[in-house]
Amino acid sequence: MAQKTCSSGKLLILILSLVILLASVFIASSGMLVDDTDGDAGDSQTSRPLVLYTDFGTESYRVPQMMGYIYSIDGQANVVEATHSVGAFDVKEGAFLMYLGALDFPDDAVFVGVVSPGQTVMEHIVVEMLGGQLFVAPNNGLLTYVLDNMNVAAVYNVTSTSLFSEALDEMSTTKITSQVGAMLADGMAPADVGEKITDPVKLPIQSPELDGSTLRGEITLVDHFGNCMSNIPESLIDNLGLVPGDAVTITIGSTQISAEYGTTYGDVPVGDEVSFVHNFALLELSINRGNFAGTHGADIGTAFSLQKA
């Protein structure tokens, strides 16, 4: 009996030793797979962030369709859905939102914008920044603020038929921009999309300016509360010499609006107009706990002026 017990014990020790040995081999093999940096770049490198801006709305079939276009090109795509809530057909709003977003994203980000009202066959462009960011959009002005306010290295027209299995004029804007964006995020060079161009379409915008004692600009964004961000930078406000507490007159069309220049909404009583520099270093027009846009008929693209009262 003692001999059998001893033999059983040796057998158990042998089995445990084999299990430990096999486990060690498995762990070592797994580590080799994880750390294998000598393989293909597409297998070991994470795709660049692919940042989406559309007017589709989150309930639209177009959103999953867009995802399908992207993942059919790059199954490991690193997609960031910045917003699908650009105002319907509002190219100006989309243009400003894409510009604002780019300010805070890293240099390896690739942006795809789709706001193309009523347009089925059109040009599409890729804009390359000196810092490395890339933008893909229809050539309809959606990249106006990017082109005007960032350091552009080159602009390319998407014309290379070798990139697609279909003719370009048979593809939708969504498919073209999504797939080109995915290719760029996966490592394709911007120049591979087509020839360089020097005259991309830009939207007509009231450029910010200081004309004597009058600031001029336009509203670029209206938020959920009716606050109106403008394209007038803090530098022009400083040149005018405005300081918190100054009374100002805002003119929209033939309507003159009395307001105070301050630092935040609560600088004035509830219901009063106030203007101040937003954290994007741009002038904002607001009503404390009110709706400036709704009250004064302002919207994206509305031109206005501001003077010391």
Compact overview of the structure:
The protein is an alpha+beta fold.
Write the layout of secondary structure elements.
Blueprint: H1 2-34, H2 41-44, E1 49-54, H3 62-73, E2 78-83, H4 91-104, E3 110-114, E4 124-129, E5 134-138, H5 144-149, E6 152-157, H6 173-185, E7 209-211, E8 214-222, E9 228-233, H7 234-240, E10 247-252, E11 255-261, E12 273-277, E13 282-287, H8 292-296, E14 303-308
Parallel strand pairs: 1-2, 1-3, 3-5, 11-12
Antiparallel strand pairs: 4-5, 4-6, 7-8, 8-9, 8-14, 9-13, 10-11, 10-14, 12-13
Helix pairs in contact: 3-6
Report on this model:
It is a single chain. With about 300 residues, the chain is an alpha+beta fold. It is about 30% helix and about 25% strand. It has a seven-stranded mixed barrel. Strands 2-1-3-5-4-6 form a six-stranded mixed sheet, with helices on both faces. It folds into two domains: about 150 residues, S-adenosyl-l-methionine hydroxide adenosyltransferase, N-terminal (Rossmann fold, 3-Layer(aba) Sandwich); about 100 residues, Beta Barrel (Elongation Factor Tu (Ef-tu), domain 3), CATH 2.40.30. About 35% of the residues are buried.
What is the global morphology?
A: elongated
Distance between the termini: 109 Å
Mean of all residue-level pLDDT scores: 89
Q: Total number of helical segments?
A: 8
Under the CATH scheme, which architecture of the largest domain would be assigned?
3-Layer(aba) Sandwich
Low-confidence stretches: 1-6, 25-44
Total beta-strand segments: 14
Number of domains: 2
CATH class of the largest domain: Alpha Beta
**Rg over alpha carbons:** 28 Å
CATH superfamily of the largest domain: S-adenosyl-l-methionine hydroxide adenosyltransferase, N-terminal
**Structural class of the secondary structure composition?**
alpha+beta
Instruction: Write out the strand line-up for the largest beta sheet, numbering strands in chain order.
Output: 8-9-13-12-11-10-14
> Residue share in helices?
25-40%
Q: Main sheet?
A: 7 strands, mixed, barrel
Succession of helices and strands: HHEHEHEEEHEHEEEHEEEEHE
Instruction: Please report which band the strand proportion falls in: under 5%, 5-15%, 15-25%, 25-35%, 35-45% or over 45%.
Output: 25-35%
Q: Which fold does the CATH topology of the largest domain refer to?
A: Rossmann fold
